[in-house]
Structures are given as structure tokens and as C-alpha cells.
Amino acid sequence: MTIATIPRKSIPYNGEEVPVCELEIINFSRLLSQEQTEIKKLLRCCQDAGFFYLDLEDIDGKRMLEDHQRLLALMRRFFNSPHDEKNEIGLPSLEHGYEPVGNHTGVLEGTMDGYEILQVSRDEIRMPNPNLPSIVHNTRDIKTFSDFIGGSNIITKTILSCLSTAFGLSGEARFENAHRNEHKSNSALAMMRYLPGDPQSSKEIGHQKHTDIGSLTLLFSEQWGLQVLPPGSDTWGFVEPKKGHAVVNVGDSLRFASGHKLFSCIHQVVPIDNVADRYSIAFFLRPENHAKFLDSQGRWVRADQWHDEKFDVFKATHAEQKLVNSMLVGGMEG
Ligand SMILES: O=C(O)CCC(=O)C(=O)O
Ligand SMILES: [Fe+2]
């Protein structure tokens, strides 16, 4: 375990004291001006823990925090609507549409996941008339989605650019060149509502352990539940929600694109509150569909192929997942 993840605190969960991971803090405004000390620190975080807090409290990030609050209000209204209205367009593609609770394998053997999810893909929201359920298909809600996706894209691209600089990459070799804005990708906004559950008895709870498919994930949640498996450790640690900060993590695609030098950390979600719903929002920056890299099994894969294959693994039973475990966790263990 690295210094960045040595636990100093713990919280009670399911009758045990569970450590809280101390993630490092990276300042977004300093990344925006390519400050060398911040870039070095960013590289270290992405090589060690694969997870860090992003401080958005300064003027450059503050709008994103306001957009987060607006999106949360939209989510509350959406998720509290009748099932048929939420499910109006179903799931037209893996990264766009609605899925009810229990659609993926769960945290514990024999269980299913405990969250419902509305995804809005970046490519879809850029269309003149995006395909959305009627309850969120109006000028104001479309603006809320596109502001959040646009802002998240700027933030994650800034991080990506700093990582290219940290690796000394130039021209076509820079990571941005596999994430060009006008090329089709599976980049998407995911809005999740977790139902409260009892770890002893619930059959639908949390979000199974995994590494993220794409390049960088920008995550917002005001509530506990996210756990990471720090590198070299076999003990899960909670990530404390931190006001004014997002949590960022490296996904499989960027790990592969970096020649496996960056660390895509294994994580899961176990809501600790068995009374209140838990809301979380993730923006997944993913490479353009045609980008290719060497995956954890030594294959040259296209970004969209890795995306689609891994989604199948998320739905597979625990027994089936054991056979392809390395894919679920991007080859980070097993
Ligand atoms: O809900 C969260 O806090 C994390 C969700 C997550 O890991 C994911 O959607 O990939
Ligand atoms: Fe994740």
C-alpha cells in the first residue's frame, strides 16, 4: 500500500470497522495552467492509486459544482417518476438509455446490483433532437445534460492533456489524439440511484467490483458507498465524499494506452445507509471507437470492442465472471 492510501480513519459498516482511504488532492485550476509540480503529482497519483480527489472549488471548476446540483435535482425528479415513464426509450445502446435495478450482477455471490441508471451519451446529446424519455426531453433538461457533459469533457480532457505532457508525448502520440471531439466514442454521462439495502439480507445491493472501461472517470457523490481496493492490498477502503471535490479514476483504456504504466484501480459500491437512496453521477471519458490498444490479455482491441465485451461481463453470473475475471478488473488481479 502506498502512502497515498494508508488508512488513518475507519467507519463502521456491516458490523465491522472499515478503513477510509486517504486519497491525494489535485487542483484543477493548477492543471489548467499546466503547472509542473501539479502535473508530477497527477502522474504519481495515476501510477500509484489510480484514484484522486479533484479540487473544483476555484473559479475554473465552480460552475461544474453548480451543474452538479442542477443535475441532482433533475435526477430526483426523474427517478421518482413512474417506471414506464423512466423506461420510455429503454436502452437503445449500451451507453445511452435507462436500466432498472437488478440488471447487472451484484456485489455478493448470488445477488444483483442495487441501482437504477439513466445514461446520456455525449454523441446523442450533441444531436439536434436527442432521443430521451419525454419527462426529460425539454429545453431546460437537455441544457442541464449538455452543460454537465460539456463541462466534464473539458475537465477530463485537461487531465488527459496533462498526462500526455507528463509522459513527454508529442504530436500524434498524445493521448488526446485518440480522444478527438468530432469522432464517435462511447463517452457518456451515467446517473445512478442506489436503493437502500441491508448487506445481510438484500438480494439487490450496490455495484459489483470492477475497473472502469474507458480512459478517465469523473465522479460526483455526496454520499458514502464508494470503496476501492488499494494496490497491493486485499482490504477494501471507503472513499470519503469531499465537498467541492470530484473523485477521478483511471480506466482500462488509458491504462492500456499508457503501455500499462497507469493504474486502473478496482472499486465497488456498497451504500452504507439502509434508509436513504444514494445518488451518484459519473462522466466516462472514453477513446474514439476506432482507437486501438494492447489489452490485459495481450490482444490488439478496438476501444468499442473492449467496451462492448466488458459490458457482457458486467451482466454475466458470478460463476461465469470467475472464468473471465481478468476482464472484469481489467487484468488488475487474478
Ligand atoms: O456510484 C459510484 O460511486 C461509482 C459508480 C461506478 O463505479 C461506475 O459507474 O463505474
Ligand atoms: Fe466504476
UniProtKB/TrEMBL annotation:
InterPro entries: DIOX_N, IPNS-like_FE2OG_OXY, IPNS-like_sf, Iron_ascorbate_oxido_reductase, Oxoglu/Fe-dep_dioxygenase_dom. Keywords: Iron, Metal-binding, Oxidoreductase. Residues 184-287 form the Fe2OG dioxygenase domain. The lineage of its organism: Eukaryota, Fungi, Dikarya, Ascomycota, Pezizomycotina. This is Fe2OG dioxygenase domain-containing protein. The keyword Ribonucleoprotein does not apply. Belongs to the iron/ascorbate-dependent oxidoreductase family. One of its GO terms (biological process) is small molecule biosynthetic process. GO terms for molecular function: metal ion binding; oxidoreductase activity. The keyword Magnesium does not apply. Pfam families: 2OG-FeII_Oxy (PF03171), DIOX_N (PF14226).
